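re: that complex we talked abt at group meeting.

here r the seqs, copy pasted straight from the sheet so there may be weird spacing, ignore it
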Amino acid sequence: MARIGVFICHCGENISATVDVEKVAQEAAKLSGVAFAIDYKYMCSDPGQTQIIEAIKEHKLTGIVVGACSPRMHEATFRKAAEKGGINPYLCEMANLREQVSWVHARSEATTAKAIDIVRMMVQKVKQDSKLFPIKVPVIKTALVIGGGIAGIQAALDIANAGHKVIMVEKAPSIGGHMSQLSETFPTLDCSQCILTPRMVEVAQHPNITLHTFAEVESVSGYVGNFDVQVRLKAKSVDMKLCTGCGSCWQKCPNKKIPDEFNAGLSFRTAIYTPFPQAVPNKPVIDRANCSWFQKGKCGVCKKVCPVGAINYEMEDEIIDIKVGAIVTATGFDIKHTDFFPEYGYGEFKDVIDGLQFERLASASGPTNGEIRRPSDGKIPEKIVFVACAGSRDKAKGIEYCSKICCMYTAKHAMMYKHKNHDGEAYVFYMDVRSAGKNYDEFVRRAVEEDDVQYIRGRVSRIYEKNGKLIVKGVDTLMNAEPIEIEADMVVLATAVVANQDAESVAQKMHISYDKHHFFAEAHPKLRPVETNTAGIMLAGACQTAKDIPDAVSQASAAASKVMGLFSSDEMTREPVVAVVNRMMPPQFTTCTGCLLCMEVCPYHAIEREEILDRRTGEILKVAARVNAGLCQGCGTCVAFCRNKSIDLQGYTNQQMLSEVIALLNKPF
Amino acid sequence: MPDFEPKIVAFVCNWCTYAGADLAGTSRTKYAPNVRIVRFPCTGRIDFMLLMKAFENGADGVIISGCHPNDCHYTSGNFHARRRWITFRSLLDFIGFDIDRITFSWVSAAEGRKWAELVDEVTNTIRAKGPFTEISTLDSSKLKQLFYDEITK
Amino acid sequence: MTKLQNKVAELFENGTINLMIGFKNALTNQPVPCFIENASQAELLIYTPECKNNLAVYLHKPEVKQSKKIGIFGNMATLRSIVQLTSENQFWDIEKTILTIDANDEVIVFANMEELETYVQENFPDISEEDLKLLAYLDSLTREERWNYWTEQFTACIKCYACRAVCPMCYCSQCTVECNQPQWVKVSSKTSGNMEWHTIRAMHLAGRCVNCGECGRTCPAGIPIHLLTARMNQDLFKEFGTRPGFSTKGEYALNTFKVDDKEGFIK
Amino acid sequence: MQIGFYPGCSLEGSSKEYSQSLLAVAEKCGVTLEEIKDWSCCGASAAHSLNHDLSIALPARTLALAENQGMTEVVIPCAACYGRMAASQKAMLEDASVLKKTQGFIDMKFLGNVQLLTVFEFLQKYIFPVADQYIVNKLNQKTACYYGCLLARPKELTKLERPENPMEMEAVMEKAGATPIDWAFKTECCGAGFSMSRTDIVAKLSGRILEDAADRGAESIIVACPMCQSNLDLRRPEIKKQLKKDINIPVLFITQALGLSMGIPAKDLGLENHFVSTGKAVSCIVKKEA
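got the structure back, here u go
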C-alpha cells in the first residue's frame, strides 16, 4: 500500500498569495494513499528539506510530491532530499504550483482548485513510480578520428597528447587535406605547408596515434563509449613495410597523363604516385583505375624498377575491426567547380578557374612554381577578375548560405597576384565583404589601399570568350549602377564551399544527422556545437559548415576536449529515463511481435533487432526489438508508436500518463 | 450556458512548451485557469489514446503542443507526432468527432506570451461551444433504443 | 485436374511444400479456405472470383508455422498482405511458396519476393467501387450525422473481435485490448468502449491495411468497419503518398516523416 | 488530335508572319492547330507589374477556355505569353487558395490539365518525327540562334536544361541544314521592355547582339520571340547610328527558317514583311541532295 507524502510550498508569498495552500494540503491529505501532507513557507530551504527527510523516515513514506516551483527549477534539489530520506530519488515528483498556477492566475477558487488538481495528478503519478537507477556504461578510452585534414590532425594530437590512444583514418594516400594545397594563409600570408607539415609528421610519429591512410570507415555500430567500427584499408599495391619511398617507381611509370588531384587538375601525375612531395606517409600507392597493369594487364614497370620488391599487384582491400569509445568526424569539405556555372561558361573556358586552382598556381610547389600563368596558354595574365560569392548566397543556385572563407581568400589571391605582378590589374566583384575576425578587415583594407585591388560592388552576369580575352559583364551598383565590362585574361571564381560528395552516406554510416546541404548537424546550434545527436560522436572542421583554418582548429580542440571529458572516467552514468521493451517468462519472452517498425522511428537508432535463441539448440525462438540504453535519450516516440504497448518509457510509463489524465479529470478520484 | 467553465487538458513536451508555460509564469503573464498541463518528454511520446481518454473522462477541450519543427530536443519527435496527428485527426473527423475541440500548436520555450494567448483563445472557443457531452452520453440507453428502432424498421 | 491443382501436386511431389493453403468448395458450394497436406488432396483446390478470404492470416498460426514449408494461394489481397507483412519482418521463421492465377488465368509461382513485389505493383488494386460509394455517402453527411451514424454502428458491436481474428495485420500476440496495466480499452461492450476499440484498430491499421475487407465481411453486427481503414489509406496516400502492401522494403506512413509535411491545422 | 493555339497580341499584329509561318509549317506536316476561341490578353506587358491577381486571372481565363473547348495541349509561340501562361498555371496548381480565388475572378472552373507547349516543345513533339520527309532544301548558311530572355528563363517555367546556353534552336536549324554558330549573346537582353519607351537603350543592347553575330560570321539570326524579332529587325536605323556601321543580317523566325527548308514559298511565310531584306538568307538555300 502506497504511503505518499505531500509537501506544499508557500514560496514565501509567491504561491500562497494566490493559492490557498492550507486548503491544498488539507485536500491532498484526503487523497487515497496519502499518508502525510503539510504546507511550509520555503520547502527548498534547509529546514524545509529537513522536514521532508524527517517525514519520509517518520511516516515510512513510499513516495513524495512537492507542490512548489517548476520541476525544471528544483526537481534535482528535492530528489536529493528524497534520497537523503532513504527512498529512491525517482520516487519524488513535483507539482508545478508557481510558474503554472500562482504566477499566472489571480487569487480565486479556480486557482486553488487547479492547484489541488495538479497535486492529485502528481500523487497518482508518484504512486505508479518505480525505483530507477542511473545507467552506467563502460568507456573504451580510444578515439577514432575520421579525416586527416587540419581539423582531424589537431583533434588527434590533442587527444593523443592527453595520453589516450587515437586511430586516424584518412581516405587519401596522405594526410594534410585541403590545407596542404594552399599557397599562403590569411591574414598573415605565411606559407601553409610550413605550418602544416610539422603537425603531419607529428601525427605520423606520435606513439599514441595509429594512422591508416588510403582507408575508409565501412560501418559504425555500438554506442557512446563502445563503438564497433569497421575500417576498409584500400589496397595500396605497395608494401609499406618494404617501401623506402625512393621514388624510382613513379619516375619510371609510363602513365603520365592523369589529372593531378593535388594540383586541382592543373598538372598531371603518374598511376603510381605520392600526392605531393611532403606527403605523410611519403610512400606511393597505385591508382588502379589508371594503371595499365590493372586495366590492360600489361606493363609492370614499377615492379621491375623497385629496388626492394615492394610492389604487390595481388594486394587486396583489408577490413579491420576496431573498438573505440568516441569518434571525431573531421571529413572536411569540397568546393563547387567551374562547370557548375552556366553563366560563366559551364567550365568550358580554360582560364576561368576556381579558388583552389589559383592556390596551386600561386604555390611555390605548384605546377608553375608559383608563377601565376594562364592554364590555356601559360601567359602571365595582365588583368584578373575575381568573382566572390560564386554560387554562395544564391538561392537560384540552391546555396543560400555564405561560404565564409571566400571574402578573405579572394583578398589574399588578389594581393598575391599584385605582389607577383606589380603592373597587373586585379578586380574583385563582391556582394558584401565579410571580414569579421582578428586582423581580417585590416587585411582586406590592405588589399584595397596598399595593393590597390579594384573592389567592385556588384554581380557578374556573364563571362564569354572573344578573341582570346574573357569578357566579364557585370554591374557596379555603387557607381550609379552602371553595367560594366572588363576584358580579362583570367577569371577566378570564389566558388561555394559545399559538403563532400559522400557526406550523406558517411553520415548515414555514423547515424548522425545532417542538414539539407549535407553538412553534419551539431546537437545544438549554440550550446552543443561540437557534439552530434549521437552521443559520443563529435564534429570538427568544415564537415559541419564552411570554416577557415583558425575556426576549424579551435573546433577540433573543442571536440578533443569533449572526448577527453568522456574518457576522464572508466564509466559514464546516464539518466535512467529510457525506453524498455517488456520481458516475460518463456515461451512468450515479450509481447513485442518484432515488426521492428519502431527501428525507423528512433532518432538515435537505439532500437535493435534481437533474436531470442534457444540456449541449447541455438535456434531462433523469437525476434523482438531491444532498446540500447546506451543510445536511448528517452524521447518516448517509440512508446506512443508501439501498437501493443510492448515498449514503455521509464519515468513516463503508459500507466503513469494515463492515471495522471484520469486523476486530473475524474474527481474525486 | 453562461456559468460553464471548460476543463481543458494540455499535453505538452518538456523542452519547449512546458518551458514556455514556465516562462509565462516567470514573466507573470496571466491566463485562464481552466487549463491543466500534463508534461511529456516529447510530443512524440503522446499517445493518441490519451486524447480519447481525456475526453471520456470529461475534458471539454485538449491542447497538444510541442517544439516548432526542427527545434525538437530529440530532433524528430515532433515530426513523427505531426504525422500521427494528421492521421488521427482525419480518423476522428471521419467518425464525426468534433475535432475543433482539439488544438494543436507549436510553442517554444521563448513563447510564454503565445502560450498564454493560446490558452485564453482555446478556453473561449470551448466555453462558446459548451460542455462536451457527446462521449459521456454515448452509453446511455437512449442511443441504443434509437438504434434498435432503426434496425427493427 | 486444373493447372493450379497440377502445379500444387507437383510442388508436393518435389518437396517444395508440405502444406498448402488455398480454397475449396464447401458443401454450400461456397468457396472456403482449406489446408492441403499431400499431392492427392490437391484436386480439392479451386479458384473463383468468390474466393475473397485473405489467406495470409493463417501464416501467423503456430499450427501452420510448424510445417515450415508452406504453399499459399493468393488473391490480390492476400498477396498484398504478404508483401506488407514481409516489410514488417513477420516471416523470418517459415519458407513460403506463393501462387496466384493471373488475368489470363495462368498459374504463377513466385520465385522470390522481388517477383511478387513487381506483380503486386503492376496489378495494384484500387478501393472497390461500392466502398468508394459508401465513403462518398459518408462524406456527404454533416459532422453530427456522421457521428450518429458511427456511434450507432459502434453500439451494435459486441466486441467479439472477429474483425481482429480475420485480419492478417492483427498478429500481435497480446493486443492492446488485452493490456490491463493500464486498461486502455473498457472491457464491456458499451458504445464508448467499442468506439475506443474501433479507433485503436483503425489507427493501428492506418497505413498497414490492404483493404481486403475481411473485417467488414466478417462482422456479425454488420458494421462496415473496413471503411475506417479504407478511409485512412485514402487520406495517408493523399498526404504522404504511401501505400500499404506495395513494397517489401515497407513504405509505412507513420514511422517516417517529411520535414515539410502539411501542418495547416497546427497553430 | 486537336492541339490548341494561342497567338496572343504580337502574332496578330507586329509579328503576323510568326503565326503565319508556324501555321504553314504545321499544315505542311499535317498537324492542325485550333485557335482558342475568345482568347484574351496574357497580361505580359503590364499586368504582372501592376496587379498580381490580374496577372494570374488573365491567363487563367484563356486556359480555362482552352479546357472547356476540350484542348489537352496548347502551343504558345510568343515567349512572353508562354511565360505568363505557365506562371499563372503554376501559381494556381501549387496553391489551392490562389486557384480558388482566381476561379472566382474568371467565374470558370480550372483543372490545370492542359499542357502548355513552347514553340520548341511543339516542334520537337509534332514536327521533328515527320520533318525529314518534308525538308527539301538545305538552308546552307551560318546562323546565330538568339533566345533572348523569356524563351530560356525562368528555368522553372521554360524547362530548358541549359538556360544560360540553350541548344534547342540549334537542333532545329541543324535539321534545316544550317550551321549554327557558337556565340556569346544567345541569351542577352534585346531591350524588349523598352522597345517603345527607350529606343536608344534598345539600339545599344540589340546593337551589341547584332555586332557579335556579325563578328562571328552569321548570315542570319534566328529568333522565336516577337519582341526579339522586332527589336533586331525594326530598330536597324537606331542601331546603325549606335554602332556607326550597317549590319544587314536578316532576322528570321525559327518557323520561317524551317518553312524555307520545307520549300514553302517565301510569301506564305511572310518573309516580305521584314524590314531587313531576308533575300540574303533565302539566296543561300540549295536543294537538299537526296
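couple things i noticed - Chain C touches chain A through 21 residues (CB under 8 Å). Chain C has a mean pLDDT of 90.
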